[in-house]
Amino acid sequence: MEPQALENAALAAAGAATSVEEIENVRVEFLGRKSELKLALREVRDRETGMALNALRERLEDAIDAREAELERAELDRRLTDERVDVTMPGTPIRRGHLHLITQIRREVEDIFLGLGYTVIDGREVETTRYNFDALNFPPGHPTRSPLQTLFLDDETVLRTETSPSQIRTMESQEPPVYIVTLGRVYRRDTPDATHTPTFHQVECLAVDEGITLGDLEGTLDYLLKALFGEERRSKFVTHHFPFTEPSVEALVSCHICDGPGCPVCRHSGWIEVGGSGMVDPNLFEFVGYDPERYTGFAFGWGLERIAVLRHGIPDLRELWRNDPRLLGQF
Description:
Layout: H1 3-16, H2 20-31, H3 36-42, H4 47-82, H5 101-115, E1 119-121, E2 126-128, H6 129-132, E3 152-154, E4 157-159, H7 165-173, E5 178-187, E6 199-209, H8 214-229, E7 235-242, E8 245-254, E9 271-280, H9 282-288, E10 296-303, H10 304-312, H11 325-328
């Protein structure tokens, strides 16, 4: 195509373009690497032809740039008119998220014990059998030591089955008095069902000092139960057995549904089992170097999921792990 005809065609195409996308296509067609003008410039062998074609290239670039700027201004004007926002209109409400129910309960329990003067301790989720079993007075043949119940990483390393190892490590690192509470995830080889999951959360408390008695434990737990389930709730304690406490007691709280007469929630007993507790076994003190003749202490460990289920009447523990906003949004 002759230079004049090429220029006329390019100017006509630029003038006919109605959008930034179309003018870009015109630029590629007439000034791109494979355009007729570019190919002609590559074949130039004399000065006069080269000057003429370069002058043509500059005129086309200027014309296409001018048309592009014109189209961009027109597009901006259109958007300012069509997409104008009325700032006086109310905005679209955005639903805010909130903490998971277990996190809420965890922070609530932490606040209760901080108010009592306890220290919150973070423990390790990967523990040695020495701290997870030996230091907690589990005998060699105890079922909990079996790989059928505990998740072993190797012969001497496990995912902790409870948060109690943190108590041993704390006692090893400081002299009494000790008043700590530790919360976090624990792991057991449980089949998920309405009352079990392989991963769950615990809160464990430890108090060690001179003159601590079982009455101090029961008073602390009664205070905690009332704080979690309501001031009108009553508590009672029944004997039990745990490897790391002696004597051991099970804490129960009066049913928040029937408050005594009996219902399906409390299995018609009027009481709901919350968790285990007891006086620290002297063997644990000997393990960490405390004098069992001078110091006594109490400890308890409860599941946060169990507290959530009991307090809110959730029928299936697995619902807390399904992240269904229809359930979690209620709390």
